[in-house]
């Protein structure tokens, strides 16, 4: 059964009552291979617990998420809904290396991760929260390109998370055609400044340093420009390895499917004063070491 369509026009017309009636079935329609009736019933129960005023504010934020290149804080209602339906998809998943989170000690932290699927950040959030690292998950902010917001279902996922919308690198084929290289560079610089400010405030910032999802499922070299996010002489880089997320939401697939995901938190890397490239390259190597065999890189080139 194909996912239920929910257009931008219909989104703008959702009232709290209509949202309670429509959203559980809409979300469940994007899932295959699971008990969608039970999932929809659970989501209905969660939405019924929120008063109209709170749900109306959430719907307004949902509609505006991704309108500008800016920070969008996760809405508490969205976070609860996301963790509920991702939890139903991630049964049997594992999280390793949580002891490395204590080594961060409040220092500015850039989180680098491989990128397999549009659900990578949702899966990471749900798995960390379900493994006792909810404080870290709640603080995490992900840098996201425009495609994360370009359909109602993807935008709903973004609404459930804290994200910074940025322009895609001009090195990538799917960069927005309407933006000039100068405009992309300006937005990228603004994003870096915002991200560094968040890190100094104690908010870890997650960047998918390959720039896009890996088409073959294997870790690709990181873009050299990612090093500009790191804070020399004061920050850390936390390597994060995610495996099997593309089994949950495959490239270009219309629906999600249940599948265990493996998340590995690596030992943090010190960012030295001066050149930050080697710290990023070391993070790449630690990410590679934490991946399942089918996701490990075919070569040893860390940066391009």
Characterise the protein shown here.
The protein is of the alpha/beta class and 304 residues long. It has one domain: Glycerol-3-phosphate (1)-acyltransferase. Helices cover 40% and strands 12% of the residues. It contains 11 helices and 9 strands. Strands 1, 2, 3, 4, 5, 6, 7, 8 and 9 form a 9-stranded mixed beta sheet that branches. Helix 8 links the parallel strand 4 and strand 5. The chain is globular and about 55 Å long. The N and C termini lie far apart (41 Å).
CATH class equals Alpha Beta
- The helix fraction, in percent, is 25-40%
Tell me the strand percentage band. Answer: 5-15%
Can you give the mean pLDDT? 93
What is the assigned CATH homologous superfamily?
A: Glycerol-3-phosphate (1)-acyltransferase
What's the story with the biggest beta sheet?
A: 9 strands, mixed
Output the structural class. alpha/beta
CATH architecture heading: 3-Layer(aba) Sandwich
Instruction: State the low-pLDDT regions, or none.
Output: none
What's the CATH topology label?
A: Glycerol-3-phosphate (1)-acyltransferase
- Number of separate strands: 9
What value does the Rg take, in angstroms?
A: 19 Å
Overall 3D geometry? Answer: globular
Instruction: Kindly give the count of domains.
Output: 1
Cα end-to-end separation: 41 Å
- With helices defined by DSSP (H or I, 4 residues minimum), what is the helix count? 11
């Amino acid at each position: 059964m194909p996912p239920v369509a929910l257009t931008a026009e219909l989104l703008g017309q959702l009232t709290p009552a209509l949202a309670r009636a429509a959203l559980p079935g809409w979300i469940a329609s994007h899932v295959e291979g699971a008990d969608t009736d039970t999932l929809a019933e659970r989501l209905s129960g969660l939405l019924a617990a929120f008063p109209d005023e709170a749900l109306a504010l959430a719907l307004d934020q949902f509609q505006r998420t991704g309108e500008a290149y800016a920070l969008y804080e996760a809405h508490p209602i969205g976070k609860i809904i996301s963790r509920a339906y991702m939890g139903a998809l991630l049964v049997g998943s594992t999280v390793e290396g949580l002891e490395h989170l204590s080594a961060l000690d409040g220092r500015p932290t850039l989180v680098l991760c491989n990128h397999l699927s549009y659900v990578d950040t949702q899966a990471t959030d749900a798995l960390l929260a379900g493994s006792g690292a909810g404080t870290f998950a709640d603080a995490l902010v992900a840098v996201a390109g425009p495609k994360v917001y370009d359909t109602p279902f993807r935008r709903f996922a973004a609404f459930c998370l804290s994200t910074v919308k940025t322009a895609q690198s001009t090195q990538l084929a799917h960069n927005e055609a309407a933006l000039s290289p100068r405009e992309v560079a300006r937005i990228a610089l603004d994003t870096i400044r915002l991200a560094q400010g968040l890190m100094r405030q104690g908010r870890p910032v997650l960047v998918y340093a390959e720039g896009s999802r890996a088409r073959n499922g294997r870790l690709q070299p990181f873009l050299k420009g990612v090093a500009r996010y790191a804070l020399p002489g004061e920050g850390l880089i936390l390597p994060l390895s995610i495996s099997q997320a593309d089994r949950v939401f495959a490239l270009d697939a219309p629906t999600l499917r249940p599948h265990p995901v493996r998340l590995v938190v690596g030992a943090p890397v010190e960012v030295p004063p001066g050149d930050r490239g080697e710290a990023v390259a070391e993070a790449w190597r630690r990410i590679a070491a934490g991946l399942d065999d089918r996701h490990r890189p075919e070569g040893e080139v860390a940066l391009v």
